[in-house]
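Notes from the pairing session

We agreed to fold both candidates in a single pass and log them together. This is the raw record for the first candidate, unedited. Please don't reformat it; downstream parsing expects exactly this layout.

Candidate A
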Amino acid sequence: AMSGMSTKLNLSANAVGSYEGMSSNISGAGFADMKFKARAVSDSDFSRWVQTAHNSNNHLTQAAYDKLAQPGTAPVMRYNLHDENIYQNVIMKYRGT
């Protein structure tokens, strides 16, 4: 673990489809079950997905993020970002001194 480390996940998909992924980091209990599907969709389908998330009643606030960050599992949910400082707050929380 590296304090203040930030990583990005990228997918370059040349075709519409579903691509399987998994966490390759040992990140606590249940890490072996951290699997996901990345869906590559058309531009119009992506625009509809963005609009659906934007219209979500699930507001991603710092409090909502803190609850999601607790150990355990959660169903797939879409959030409407209400606090643009969440990412920076998390990075700074674990930054070494």
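Candidate B (folded immediately after A)
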Amino acid sequence: NPQIRAFELLKRATTEDEQLTLIREGQLPYEVVVPPLKKTTPQIWMELLHRAPYMNLLRNLVTFARHEVFSQEENVRYAVERLTNPTAVARSKVLPFRFFDAWQAYQRSDAPDSRIADALRAALEQSFVNMPSLGNRKVCIGTDVSGSMTGAISEKSSTTCIDIAGIFTGALLRCVEDRVIALPFNTGVVPNCGLSSRDDILVTAEKIQRLGGGGTAVGAPIEYLLDRKIAVDVFIGITDNE
């Protein structure tokens, strides 16, 4: 098997030229190249950038930046084009909050390039391409912004439940064609929160995130509609149910 042969030779390669040749000829991915090498160079990382599957690229933007890959303009352009390619986004099946995770991590890196950060925002928007339209129906979105929603989704992630709720709220606001009523809630409905269907999804997520805190009254949005005799065709609740 040519790929296994290239991998075995890579373990014994002593020069950068040998290593680059074996990576190219064997089409070796990131996962098998990095562990056996005692030392990696910017040139090797640049080669790995162009071999990275979509999810690998998304998860390792900070690593590529740390190894000076994006010091070259052509590599920045490649990353931006790859991240925002609609076909690549659709085929990747990457969940929207993963783009948010990547965007947060990249923003915290040293001297992030605004073009790559903007590409992640654009890819997040594109990741909702398969979301069905709710048509000409009046929709109410009740988003839980209580204290429990500020917890991380897992020990390995900095993304919180309220981040994900904000992302889905933003996406729903963008895809409703008729009137949409946004009613974030904790112990009651949070009024005048400034949510708009014209905002980017991440802008909505940031607005929702700033509302976090308080108890949970899951019925508050429904009570709000009933008290004011506001009729809607669809009600969507987003909550961790705690």
